[in-house]
Structures are given as structure tokens and as C-alpha cells.
Amino acid sequence: MNRLLYHLIAFLVVAVWGVTFVFTKLLLIAGLTAAQIFVLRFVIAYLLLLAYTLTFKHFRLFTSSWQDELLMVALGVTGGSLYFLTENSAMIYTTTTNTSLIVCLCPLFAALLIALFFRSQRLHGIQIVGTVMAAIGVIIVVLNGRFVLHLSPLGDTLAFGACLCWAFYSLLMIPASMHYDTVFITRKVFFYGLLSMIPYFVIFPDLPSLSVVLRPDVLANLLFLGCVASMLCFLAWNWVIKKLGATIVTNYVYFNPVTTVIFAWLILSERITVYFLIGTLLILVGMYLCNKVSPSKSK
Prior knowledge:
Helix content is about 80%, strand content about 0%.
């Protein structure tokens, strides 16, 4: 029963993250930059999590060693500043379709990286078939019958950079979750994600316009991204990684474009076709196979 709950939470997190492509696009259209969107959502998330820690938990400032502190820095960069900068910037130079397709294939790269360092979390047999099937489903869902990508070297490279960042974040979460609790790790991710943005703003001083930020639609989008998509979802995601393992949990990213398409249909009036249904079915079957635990891994 507990294992089913972990899988349900992972699915819900990815469902929320699938929506963020749409809301981020709306914020870009409203006039905010990729860097501004990232900083504003992480500031909101960090302050909320800091308030929670100071109120309900024992406050801890640093990790047990400088090596572990560097690990937290790496998590903040790969899962924070560099990931969101590359992903959000990609949507400026290429289509949302290209960005979603490239970023959502990160489980393939994550599985490869994790297999190189952690034998216990390697996929086996039917799980490999499942992840490939889910990847094919992602391609079908995102292309939605068009089968022609509008290539943009800069935008697609940025999207691939975001894909690799999340793969490395998944890898680094394994040793971090072995020694530290989820709230502490998530707070450090937000902190170092924001701290690592300082050089960017020194080079490109670009503060958001207060009149834009305080617009009701913009503020509502930012609060959703900060409170729900960042604070709650990062906490939940890091927690289920500890419970299920990074490889299995990262495979849920395959569901991301499904929720993106659904909300793009609801909010942006984009069309849903039979290709979406076929691709979604492949993703569902593939994820079922991915989550089959081999006898050697069963407890």
C-alpha cells in the first residue's frame, strides 16, 4: 500500500510539472524573462520552506562535511538555476513542443548515468522495454501527428542542456538522500539555486518590473509556480526518490507531456488528436513495465 502511495505522489508531481510549461509560457508572454521567473518562484518556495523549518523543525545550516556541502551546491545548480535557465530560455528560441519533447526524454539519460554509478538501481529486462516504450509514447504525444520538428539549434541545445541537468540531479539525489532528510535537502536546493544566480544578474542586471509582477494574472501564476510546483513538488519528488529510487521515480517524467497537452488544450485551446491517445497508452503501459520489480530487487 505504501509503495502504491509513493507511485501516486510521483505521478501527481509530474502532472503538476506538466502544467508549468503552459504557465511559464504565459509569464514569458507577459514580459518576464527566464531568469526572473526562476528567481521569483524559488524565492517564494525558499521563504515558505524556511518559515516551515524555523517553526516546526530543528534548523540546520550546513551539512556534515564540505564534500556534502558541495553536493548540495551541485543539486542547487543542476536542479535549480542551470536547469530552469536552460529550460525556460529554450522556450524563447524554440517551440514548446521541442522543449517538452527533449526535456521529457531525460529518464533515458538518467537511467544511463545512474547505471554507471549505482548497480542496485539499474533497470533490468522488462523495465528496459518499458522505458523505451514510454519514450516512444512521449515522442508520439509531443509530435501529435505532425512528425516535423522546427529545428532551432540554440533552443534545442538549451532544452537538451536542461535534460542533462535533470538527469544529473536525479543521480546526485541518491547519495544526498542517504544521509539527509527531504526538507533539509530541498531547502538547500532552493538556497544554492538562488545563490548561483548572482553571477548571472551581475553580468545581466535585469530586475523584473514591479508593475508586471503585481498584475493579478502574473502574480497568480508565480504563486502557483512557487508554492505548488516548486516547494510542494520538490519536497514530494525528493521524498519519493528516497523511497522508490531515482531511476524508477525519474521515469515518471514521461507523463509530463501528457499533462502539458491536456492543459494546453484547456487553456490555450490546442487540439488533442488520436496520436495523443495512442502515445498516452504507450506511456501508461511502458510505465507499468518500468515499475515491475525484478526478483533480485524485491524485498
